[in-house]
C-alpha cells in the first residue's frame, strides 16, 4: 500500500513539473495578489454575523470574488483557475457543509502533495437546506417557495447584494470564467474608476449573468438595487404570481402554473428599472401572448414605444482614453485583431462602452397599465423574511420603491454608471477587450496560455458557440491550457483517471497498461485531404481494437486545407500561425492547442464525444490530441523509439525506413499478422500509458476479423468521427 501511495505521489509530482501545463501560482497584479494572504472561512452564511465574518476573512483590500455551485468537484477547477492567477479572495458557496468539507479536503491534499503550488487558505460557505422544523427546503433557497432554475443562481446574487450592502467591491462569476488578464489594473485606473458596474452582455439589451463587477457603489444605491431586486422579484413571484397570471398565464412559463425565468432575465429587468428610474418589466413582458392582455395594457405598439423610451432608448456611449502604458497592455477594441486598435501620436487609444446611467428606482405609488399594471401581490412571509435579512445587516437601507413618502429620497440618490462588455460593432468590439466569450475571442488563440499572446481579454467566459460535443467547456479549457491536469488527478484518484477514456474506469491502470496506439509526428500532415485523414483515423481505430489498446486520435495538421477558412486556404503552406488565428476554422471544425505558435496542433472536434473517447460499452477508447500530449508529459516520453514502434513486417525483420515527409503512401497489414508480430511488444509493456507508435499510414488488409470486427463495428456506431462519411450533410456541418 505504501509503495502504491509513493508511486502515485511521484506521478503527481511529475505531472506538476510538466511543461505542458504550468500549474504554479503567477500573480498578475502584485497589489491584488491575495494567494497565501487570506484567513479563509468555513461555515454557514445565513445569519448577518456569519456573512460578515465570511467576507472579513475572505476579502483582500475590500475586494471579493463570489462563486456558487451545487457540487464541489465542479467548483474545484473554477476556484483553482483564480487561485493560480494569485486571486485567493474567492468565497465559494456550495450546497452543504459536506460539499464544502470535500472541497477543503481536496485542496488540502493537493497542497500537501504540491507545496510549490500552494495558494493558501480557502473560503467556502453554504446556506441552510433545512427549515426550523428540520424539513428539507425543496427550493434550495430558504426564501423561495419553490425552485426557480438552479438554487446556485440565487445563492450567488443574494450574496453579491449582501457584499455590496456591506461596502465591498465585488465580482460575481460563473464556473466557466477566468481572469485571463489583469482586470484590476484597468478597473482601478482613473478611467476604470469612472464606472460602478460592468456586466457581460448577452445581446445589446440583455444581461449575461456569468460576469459582473461592482466597485465604489453606494451600499443603498442603484447598483445594489439591481442585484438585490433581481432575487427579491424571484422570491415574490415564487410566493405569489397571481397578478402575472391574471394579466396573461403565458407570463409564468414554469411547470404546474408556476413562475420561471433565468436569473439573467430578471437582472435585465432590474437594469431597465434603474435606467427608467422606476420599476419596469420589459424582459418579463416579452412573453405576453394574448390579444386581450395587450388590450388591457393599451396595445402592444403603444407599450413598446413607451417602455423603449424609458429603457433601451437611454443607452449612450462613453469613450475613455487609455494612456500608452494601459493601451499597450489591453490592446484595444479593434476586432478580431486587438493589436490593430488605432493609436494617437502619444500612443493612446480610445475605448467605448455601451453605457447606462443608473437611477434609484421608485414607483411613487403609480403602476400604470401602460407598463403592465401592478404585477406583485402584497408581500407574504417569505418576501418579508428576505427583506428582513438585509435590515439585519445593520446598514442603511435604500428607499422603499413602493412607499410614496420615500420618492424624494430615491430621487436624491446619486446616479451610478453601468457598462456592458462584449458588444459586437462589426470591426470593433465594445468592451470585448475587458471581458468576452469563446466565440469572439477565445477560439482565435487569445486565451491560449502557451501562445503568450501580446494581448488578451482581461476576463474571459467559456460561453457561446462551443460546438456540438460532450463536455464542451472542459474541452475548451484543456485546449487553451487552463485545465489543471494535476488537480484533475488529485480529484479523480490518480493520473490514470484524468482522461475521458478512463474517468469512470475503476480499472484505468489496466486499461492503459495495454498501450496507446498513436501515429508518429509527421505521419499526419497538411498534404492529406480530409478523406485521407478519415482513412488514417479509421485505420488507427482498427489497430487499437486489434491490439486491445487505446487510440490516440491524431490532431489534424493546422495547415490542412480542410481545417482552414476560405481565406486561410490561400496562405503559403506550411502556415506560420499567429494570434489571432482567424485562418483556422475554429467555429466548429477544430480546436487549436500546443506549446507555442510554432507548434500549434488542431484537434478535430469530430472526436469530442464520449462515444469516441470513453465508450463505456468497452468496444474502444480514445484520447484526444491534447490528452495524448498531457500523457506524453506525464510519462516523460519525448518521441517515438524503435522499441515501441509497431512492427508491420514479420520478426526478426524490422520496418523499412519510414516514407519521406508529406507522403500519402499507405502500408497494408493483415489483422492476424499485426497481432502476432506485436504480441510480445504489447504483453511486455512495463508501464501504463506507453505509446505504441505507427511510423507510417496503415490500412488493415481485408478488415478485422472475429470479435475484433464486431467490437470495431460497435465502436463505429457510437463514435461519429469513425462514421463521418455516413452522416447526413447537415450533421457533418457541425464538425
UniProtKB/TrEMBL annotation:
Signal peptide: 1-18
Keywords attached to this entry: Signal
Superkingdom assignment: Eukaryota
Keyword Signal tagged: yes
Protein name: Nucleotide-diphospho-sugar transferase domain-containing protein
Protein's organism: Chlamydomonas reinhardtii
Amino acid at each position: 500500500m505504501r509503495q502504491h501511495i509513493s508511486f502515485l505521489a511521484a506521478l503527481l509530482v511529475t505531472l506538476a513539473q510538466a511543461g505542458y501545463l504550468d500549474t504554479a501560482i503567477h500573480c498578475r497584479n502584485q497589489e491584488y495578489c491575495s494567494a497565501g494572504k487570506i484567513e479563509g472561512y468555513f461555515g454557514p452564511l445565513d445569519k448577518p454575523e456569519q456573512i460578515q465574518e465570511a467576507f472579513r476573512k475572505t476579502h483582500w483590500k475590500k475586494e471579493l470574488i463570489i462563486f456558487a455551485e451545487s457540487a464541489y468537484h465542479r467548483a474545484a477547477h473554477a476556484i483553482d483557475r483564480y487561485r493560480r492567477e494569485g486571486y485567493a479572495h474567492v468565497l465559494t458557496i456550495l450546497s452543504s457543509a459536506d460539499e464544502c468539507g470535500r472541497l477543503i479536503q481536496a485542496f488540502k491534499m493537493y497542497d500537501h502533495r504540491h507545496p510549490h503550488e500552494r495558494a493558501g487558505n480557502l473560503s467556502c460557505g453554504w446556506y441552510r437546506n433545512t427549515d426550523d422544523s428540520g424539513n428539507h427546503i425543496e427550493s434550495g433557497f430558504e426564501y423561495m417557495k419553490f425552485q426557480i432554475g438552479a438554487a446556485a443562481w440565487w445563492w450567488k446574487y443574494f450574496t453579491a447584494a449582501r457584499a455590496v450592502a456591506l461596502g465591498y467591491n465585488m465580482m460575481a462569476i460563473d464556473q466557466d470564467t477566468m481572469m485571463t488578464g489583469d482586470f484590476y489594473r484597468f478597473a482601478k485606473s482613473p478611467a476604470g474608476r469612472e464606472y460602478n458596474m460592468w456586466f457581460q452582455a448577452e445581446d445589446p439589451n440583455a444581461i449575461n449573468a456569468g460576469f459582473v463587477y461592482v466597485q465604489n457603489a453606494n451600499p443603498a444605491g442603484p447598483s445594489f438595487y439591481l442585484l438585490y431586486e433581481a432575487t427579491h422579484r424571484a422570491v415574490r413571484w415564487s410566493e405569489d404570481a397571481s397578478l402575472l397570471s391574471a394579466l396573461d398565464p403565458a407570463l409564468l412559463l414554469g411547470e404546474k402554473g408556476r413562475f420561471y425565468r433565468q436569473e439573467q432575465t430578471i437582472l435585465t429587468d432590474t437594469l431597465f428599472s434603474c435606467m427608467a428610474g422606476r420599476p419596469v418589466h420589459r424582459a418579463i413582458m416579452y412573453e405576453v401572448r394574448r390579444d386581450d392582455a395587450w388590450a388591457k395594457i393599451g396595445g402592444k405598439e403603444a407599450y413598446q414605444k413607451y417602455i423603449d423610451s424609458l429603457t433601451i432608448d437611454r443607452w449612450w456611449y462613453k469613450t475613455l482614453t487609455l494612456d500608452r502604458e494601459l493601451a499597450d497592455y489591453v490592446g484595444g477594441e479593434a476586432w478580431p485583431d486587438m493589436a490593430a486598435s488605432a493609436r494617437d501620436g502619444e500612443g493612446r487609444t480610445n475605448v467605448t462602452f455601451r453605457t447606462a446611467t443608473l437611477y434609484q428606482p421608485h414607483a411613487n405609488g403609480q403602476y400604470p397599465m401602460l407598463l403592465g399594471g401592478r404585477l406583485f401581490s402584497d408581500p407574504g412571509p417569505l418576501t418579508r423574511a428576505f427583506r428582513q435579512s438585509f435590515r439585519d445587516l445593520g446598514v442603511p437601507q435604500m428607499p422603499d420603491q413602493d412607499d410614496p413618502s420615500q420618492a424624494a429620497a430615491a430621487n436624491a440618490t446619486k446616479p451610478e454608471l453601468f457598462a456592458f462588455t462584449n458588444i459586437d460593432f462589426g470591426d470593433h468590439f465594445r468592451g470585448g477587450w475587458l471581458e468576452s466569450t469563446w466565440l469572439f475571442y477565445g477560439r482565435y488563440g487569445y486565451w491560449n496560455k502557451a501562445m503568450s499572446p501580446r494581448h488578451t481579454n482581461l476576463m474571459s467566459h467559456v460561453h457561446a458557440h462551443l460546438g456540438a460535443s460532450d463536455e464542451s467547456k472542459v474541452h475548451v479549457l484543456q485546449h487553451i491550457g487552463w485545465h489543471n491536469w494535476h488537480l484533475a488527478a488529485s480529484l479523480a484518484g490518480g493520473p490514470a483517471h484524468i482522461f475521458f477514456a478512463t474517468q469512470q474506469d475503476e480499472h484505468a491502470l489496466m486499461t492503459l497498461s495495454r498501450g496507446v496506439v498513436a501515429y508518429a509526428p509527421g505521419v499526419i500532415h497538411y498534404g492529406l485531404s480530409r478523406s485521407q485523414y478519415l482513412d488514417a483515423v479509421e485505420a488507427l481505430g482498427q489497430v487499437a481494437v486489434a491490439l486491445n489498446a487505446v487510440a490516440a486520435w491524431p490532431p489534424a495538421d493546422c495547415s490542412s486545407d480542410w481545417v482552414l477558412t476560405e481565406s486561410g486556404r490561400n496562405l503559403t503552406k506550411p502556415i506560420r500561425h499567429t494570434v489571432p488565428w482567424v485562418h483556422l476554422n475554429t467555429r466548429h471544425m477544430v480546436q487549436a492547442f500546443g506549446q507555442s505558435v510554432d507548434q500549434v496542433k488542431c484537434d478535430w472536434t469530430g472526436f469530442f464525444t464520449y462515444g469516441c473517447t470513453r465508450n463505456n460499452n468497452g468496444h474502444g477508447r480514445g484520447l484526444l490530441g491534447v490528452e495524448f500530449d498531457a500523457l506524453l508529459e506525464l510519462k516523460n516520453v519525448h518521441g517515438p523509439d524503435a522499441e515501441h514502434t509497431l512492427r508491420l513486417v514479420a520478426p526478426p525483420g524490422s520496418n523499412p525506413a519510414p516514407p519521406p515527409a508529406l507522403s500519402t503512401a499507405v502500408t497494408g497489414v493483415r489483422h492476424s499478422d499485426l497481432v502476432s508480430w506485436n504480441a510480445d511488444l504489447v504483453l511486455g509493456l512495463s508501464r501504463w500509458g506507453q505509446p505504441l507508435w505507427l511510423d507510417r499510414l496503415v490500412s488493415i488488409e481485408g478488415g478485422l476479423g472475429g470479435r475484433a470486427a464486431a467490437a470495431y463495428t460497435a465502436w463505429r456506431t457510437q463514435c461519429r468521427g469513425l462514421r463521418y462519411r455516413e452522416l447526413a450533410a447537415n450533421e457533418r456541418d457541425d464538425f
